[in-house]
Design a protein that fits this description.
The chain folds into 2 domains: about 180 residues, Rossmann fold, CATH 3.40.50.2000; about 170 residues, 3-Layer(aba) Sandwich (Rossmann fold), CATH 3.40.50.2000. It is built from 14 helices and 13 strands. It is α/β, with parallel strands linked by helices.
Length: about 375
């Protein structure tokens, strides 16, 4: 079987969706060594993909383009259409509007463009809604990453459950030594972190609701609560709130910017607690990654996908409720977290290998 996979997004950013596309592809190559894979990339081969070029069943197909929209919506569909393949996989973003091959497997990670449009630009809302409708309409199987998102796609886009494929994201355990005390010290020095800190990691954008966390944290500090430092890690996205900019300038909250992958396990492991105030998620990898790195205390909003993937291994506060978050922050000091057995059992639900196997089986059946 020959599968063409769109990995052009890996040349732009490398946040949650791009990581998902990379990890799923990597697992597919491991699971189906007898299949042929054509990896479509943009401009130069990303460093993380170069090892795949040594595999006899993998070849790269390169498109050129500096304009992201033109490359995604014009060059990419034209290139993919010329590839003779048995399946066409779009594992990160919606299928381009001009692509109409029948053996398509397109990812819709969430429907934030419908469920929380206020966190996006109007042009983004329209673009992603059209992309989601097109993806659901053309795909032999519409792929998604949680039961929550699957239900929303069924309700809002009228896609039948049998025509969807649930592929949970996988959670990788840190390499040996990556979260050691020595690594934690080096990471603390590299990013100028305090001795004790609460950590939140995500792209700094409205949907992640970091303003709510910052406001609640600073209010508690002003009320005399003794709290560890607050570290917000991750690259800056669009529409950074003025309150966050002020906190950054005043130094009342620490912003690390983009964190190297090699530093993430130690950054997680050094935290007193991991806090994830996200307003809306399709899955929510960071709190699970924090647990995999050894963080005992996780505090999360009770957004539906987050309660689905975290189960009873986290402390939850009412979504987008500052008072509830403040109470939860005060409760963190006395919260011991779940037992290690509960965390281990929960993390075992999430495997790139299992998701890749499900997708490959679905493609072969298709």
């Amino acid at each position: 079987m020959r599968t063409a996979i769109d990995l052009t997004s890996l040349s732009d950013n490398f946040s949650g969706l791009e990581r998902m596309a990379f990890e799923l592809t990597k697992a597919m190559l491991d699971e189906a060594p007898e299949d042929e894979f054509i990896l479509v990339i943009k401009n130069e081969v990303p460093g993380m993909l170069k090892p795949f070029g040594r595999l006899s069943n993998v070849r790269f197909c390169r498109i050129k383009g500096k304009n992201k929209l033109v490359a995604n919506q014009l060059t990419l569909p034209l290139t993919m259409s010329r590839i003779k393949a048995d399946a066409y996989l779009f594992p990160a973003f919606p299928v381009p509007l001009l692509f109409n091959k029948k053996d398509t497997y397109g990812m819709i990670a969430d429907l934030g463009c419908y469920d929380c449009p206020q966190t996006m630009k109007k042009k983004q809302v329209l673009f992603f809604r059209e992309g989601a409708k097109h993806t659901a309409g053309i795909s032999r199987k519409t792929l998604t990453i949680s039961e929550f998102s699957k239900g929303r796609i069924e309700k809002l886009l009228h896609k039948q459950a049998d025509d969807m494929q649930l592929l949970y994201c996988g959670i990788n355990l840190p390499p040996e030594g990556a979260a050691s005390k020595e690594r934690q010290i080096r990471v603390r020095e590299k990013y100028s972190l305090p001795g004790k800190y609460y950590l939140s990691l995500s792209t700094v954008e409205p949907r992640k609701n970091l303003k709510l966390l910052t406001d609640a944290y600073l209010e508690l500090k002003a009320e005399g609560e003794e709290l560890p430092g607050l570290v917000l890690a991750g690259r800056e996205g669009w529409l950074m709130d003025p309150a966050l900019l002020k906190a950054k300038e005043e130094g009342s909250v620490i912003f690390t910017g983009f964190v190297d992958d090699a530093d993430l396990p130690a950054l997680y492991a050094g935290a007193e607690a991991f806090i994830f105030p996200s307003l809306y998620e399709g899955f929510g990898m960071p709190p699970l990654e924090a647990q995999a790195a050894g963080v005992k205390k996780v505090l999360s909003s009770d957004a539906e996908a987050l309660t689905e993937v975290l189960g009873d291994t986290a402390l939850f506060f009412k979504n987008n409720d500052r008072g509830s978050l403040k109470q939860a922050l005060k409760a963190l000091a006395g919260y011991e977290g779940p037992g290690p057995g509960a965390v281990k059992k929960n993390l075992e639900r999430f495997s790139w290998r299992e998701s890749a196997k499900k997708l490959i089986d679905s493609m072969h059946e298709g």
